[in-house]
Amino acid sequence: xxxxxxxxxxxxxxxxxxxxxxxxxxxxxxxxxxxxxxxxxxxxxxxxxxxxxxxxxxxxxxxxxxxxxxxxxxxxxxxxxxxxxxxxxxxxxxxxxxxxxxxxxxxxxxxxxxxxxxxxxxxxxxxxxxxxxxxxxxxxxxxxxxxxxxxxxxxxxxxxxxxxxxxxxxxxxxxxxxxxxxxxxxxxxxxxxxxxxxxxxxxxxxxxxxxxxxxxxxxxxxxxxxxxxxxxxxxxxxxxxxxxxxxxxxxxxxxxxxxxxxxxxxxxxxxxxxxxxxxxxxxxxxxxxxxxxxxxxxxxxxxxxxxxxxxxxxxxxxxxxxxxxxxxxxxxxxxxxxxxxxxxxxxxxxxxxxxxxxxxxxxxxxxxxxxxxxxxxxxxxxxxxxxxxxxxxxxxxxxxxxxxxxxxxx
Amino acid sequence: xxxxxxxxxxxxxxxxxxxxxxxxxxxxxxxxxxxxxxxxxxxxxxxxxxxxxxxxxxxxxxxxxxxxxxxxxxxxxxxxxxxxxxxxxxxxxxxxxxxxxxxxxxxxxxxxxxxxxxxxxxxxxxxxxxxxxxxxxxxxxxxxxxxxxxxxxxxxxxxxxxxxxxxxxxxxxxxxxxxxxxxxxxxxxxxxxxxxxxxxxxxxxxxxxxxxxxxxxxxxxxxxxxxxxxxxxxxxxxxxxxxxxxxxxxxxxxxxxxxxxxxxxxxxxxxxxxxxxxxxxxxxxxxxxxxxxxxxxxxxxxxxxxxxxxxxxxxxxxxxxxxxxxxxxxxxxxxxxxxxxxxxxxxxxxxxxxxxxxxxxxxxxxxxxxxxxxxxxxxxxxxxxxxxxxxxxxxxxxxxxxxxxxxxxx
Lengths: 410, 410
Known about the structure:
- The structure is a homodimer of 410-residue chains.
- Chain A has 410 residues and is an alpha/beta fold.
- In chain A, helix 6 links the parallel strand 6 and strand 7.
- In chain A, helix 5 runs parallel beside helix 15.
- The two termini of chain A are 42 Å apart.
- Chains A and B meet through helix 3, helix 8, helix 9, helix 10 and strand 10 of A and helix 3, helix 8, helix 9, helix 10 and strand 10 of B.
């Protein structure tokens, strides 16, 4: 740890208090950057310090931010960590964004690369209610990677088309089928009707198979302030799971949904987050936006860009998101769902990169299978099954998928 | 207009329909970029097109996105405009973010540089209720720039300290005084008590002066889903104006607040927006985020980085924000409030850059005035008065401000 040129900066104490919001920033290693960190810590908490009378200092010290880390991490960049007292903000994620990266986000270049919420917050922000274990229990799938299939082109489609496509994906072995996040044009297949159709289909599937019913995750389309009402209405019609885009609707909306009772299973979509995670020297690290904050907001499944497709995160960043979603922490692990560019030949690599407690999120390589949607799902399930039985026979659906997209990374 | 290498791309029709969401993107001028635009238009609306049977094409054409503009704007960049049918999304801003820049935001580098909402939306999203004219009418200030003063260091302060600081700013001539957006630590001066204290102070000031009372804008601290309830409670205690950070709390939250009756005066803060407006080749243009979307969400006053301070927008970008807030459009004009780095010597330049229908937003150069807060506000008001009486006497507060910060741009 480097605490300013002389190691004497008064706010650089290094200790981690138990009840602070800890934010780590990458800032350019220019000028007196440790002083910039001090100015951030003071400016974003009590405004000024050294010119305050001793009596005011004594009273305001409970609100004073502290620089707890100053590390030069490369020739060009330094990481500084600021501890914001929990007293400075209520346990809600809009306040976290405002305090930790509100005004500071405008002070380009600066990137929020790490975040740890106060120890006292899990009661107000408990994180995933179901989490990885709860989703697995609901589906009756204890260990293997789960298959999450995405509808293709839902805008304007009829309820019959919806039900047929859902049936195909479930029949092929998808554990969860989700709406597209851009699916708002449901005039011909409204949310309530889709939920009822899905419930009936799932029940008959479960009755036939003797296994727990698969899940359908409906896209929430209400405005952020009305999403909880929409979700409650849909749950009354039988909905169990929802797709939510917290960076369009508000992280607080996702958190409010996670407090609904009974608790829906929540899938978080990274829509709009690309606007601030994609530039390396500025914005917010993907592990913070799609990991830490998404888990704290209560997502049971966190969708994020995989390292494989055209819309890709660098592998280390994608793995950091996965770790933030399901690594050891005070909140239950969520299931990481790296998405985009997946095909059955990539399943072994995906499990190598993210572990088997993962959700395989696919659309194009399911509906684009030479033999159709059901075969596409079947090919993924076969690829998953081969993880535990690598020497078993290769079914024709998987052979066809390998032939089209390759039996490994392209 | 350039419609692909041969000018034959089928979706590039150039016409602007009356009821579409029009989004303009800057994308690299690489490869077959007009084709990329077509893929965006189809992919973000109906998913695929050319392989659909004619009957389905006929049915889905109402939902099909169209490329309406393809311009190479430099050696490296092109601007493409996509028209999304209004049928594809409800009139709400979370849906706009998801449809126009949800998945696309992840396809770096791409920047959302222009946005125009469907013609049918003003009923659901009417924009500023008060707008520039309403705020001026409430304050009894028909023409001159308004002075918006920011509290300094509010965390942990007592109600008496709050009332004293408010009194100083108002007595010096601030038209509006607003909380800091990071002010959540109001344990010693809760929202309801601040509002009541401000109301009493404002009433006695109005009684003494015979002029309309000045405004206090309280920071809303509830989570996005509860902000409307918090605002309603505060309004029952006498609150008239609020500070909202829509990119932390959700744009829908701001829109919901604008529908409250009676209608509060809403000030929009750019907190967190820096994460996605600050990188030129990616993210969202400031004029879209802090202009178009902020006005559509109903902000009466839109705060954004000025071109003058350390936290600065390039002048042309800041002016584009101002234009988007108050230029001719279907929604009422909001008041632009360029902020950060302002001092009285900059007032002529500010008015030159943004016009006189502007809010001068200052904190440091008010509280940091050599003779204190009240003199600091007085110096700004004197600088504003000199715009119409340039040859009048210079009061000592303005002379002191010029001496400290300069009589013009530094």
